[in-house]
Q: What sequence folds into this?
């Protein structure tokens, strides 16, 4: 996958490629891929964690391609 332009891929595919690449290379701590839940209850729970320094959550549409410098609402 080296050198592959993934910008037009949907988020779900980009995420799977990143997970695969890290696993294939045996990447481990201190490098950790942040979880990417799709369950609304999990996200709601995360939003209660302000006491541990979590500032917020970024939402991405699973079918959207990457849009550099764009905030899509």
A:
């Amino acid at each position: 996958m080296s050198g592959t332009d993934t910008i037009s891929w949907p988020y779900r595919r980009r995420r799977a490629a990143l997970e695969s690449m890290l696993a294939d290379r045996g990447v481990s701590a201190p490098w950790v891929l942040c979880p990417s839940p799709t369950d609304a209850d999990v996200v709601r729970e995360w939003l209660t964690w302000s006491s541990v320094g979590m500032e917020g959550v970024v939402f991405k549409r699973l079918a959207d391609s990457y849009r550099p410098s764009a905030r899509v609402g």
Q: What stands out?
A: Residues 20 and 26 are 10 Å apart (CA to CA). Helices lie at 11-24, 40-46.
